[in-house]
């Protein structure tokens, strides 16, 4: 029997924690003697879907999901179940999968906090200057603002690759934040037609974005003549895009 453990975290709401989760996976693997991998419900790679695929392709006969957050994240707890159900529905013979008790309910957490309280400390020496710096009062002067949804469903559908393609292509054109400001977001609502990318001020909502379309958005919309043909703006709440969003929210 081959049991694979996935530490499932979020990156959209917990910036900069990815490396810690990856390091934790390595350390836990050394103790439990089984494959342990860090993955993300949103905002970072690998996605939960990709990690489940990798475990199944590697011959896992059982998968254990560990929601890796303190305190417990209700969004993560809910959506890792939904994301797993979506993945299993599209996979032949998915391995049985379980979810562990929340970390906050593990007795060993007390031991860890006691060790932190009694362990080495580092004096805080920061200055308040950066907190109130004038630079943080200036409104950016970019001409386009691109929102890249990296919520749980868009992440499952490939938003990590889309975000990388967008920023890489913009860099290839020599464009920075003062030209095109790219912001990763949480769920923007029309999840079922994700990955979703929005370009403002044109109010252009692009559904089903893949790497190829991301490159075209940069080349033809942001550096070219404007919104792509066949990818209309929101159009006042009518049309396929708006209809799909309505259906999706009704399911929640
Ligand atoms: S997760 Fe992207 S629109 Fe909901």
Automatic annotation (TrEMBL):
Annotated spans, Disordered: 228-252
Gene3D superfamilies: 3.40.50.1400, Glutaredoxin (3.40.30.10)
InterPro entries membership: Thioredoxin-like_sf
Record Pfam families: 2Fe-2S_thioredx
CDD domains cross-referenced by the UniProt entry: TRX_Fd_family (cd02980)
Protein name, entry field: (2Fe-2S) ferredoxin
Source species taxonomy: Bacteria, Bacillati, Actinomycetota, Actinomycetes, Micromonosporales
